[in-house]
Amino acid sequence: MIPKKLQTYLNKTAVAAEAVVHRTVYTAYDLAQTTGIKLEQIAKTILVKVEPPYGEKKDKHIIAVLPASHQLDLKKLQGILKAKKLSIADERVMSKLFKIKAGAITPFSARHSSTPVFIDKTLLKAKKIMARSGSFTDSLFLKPKDFIKVSGGSLASFAKKVIGKK
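== YbaK/aminoacyl-tRNA synthetase-associated domain-containing protein ==
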């Protein structure tokens, strides 16, 4: 089931999002295998810990969104953010920050916090993007322009391709 907060937000923005119910999955790769959607169309969402100077005196977090067929290039993202150091955030931080189960992060989580979202431009090549909804059994299918609108993300280039086409 799509979380109520997200469903309310989707209704407010008048975005056409197709809800997709599927078996329980924990990774973007499993989501592709279960739904038959190409990895290039699946939005992989990663919580990244950012050490200053980007985040003043204390560490901050950002959400990086990229195609499941790609890998996060921390060095590229570090340059974009002008950060001292980046690392993948611990799942416990994710649970605490967004009040969700570890692994259920969604590109739309930032709508309920002050966490910036960065979307890799490669993801926008897909005609439709499938993203997790904050549940292990429900996802959303959206057009790229609607995906950007709902996530509130900034576009950048920070992914490198590592997995061939499905």
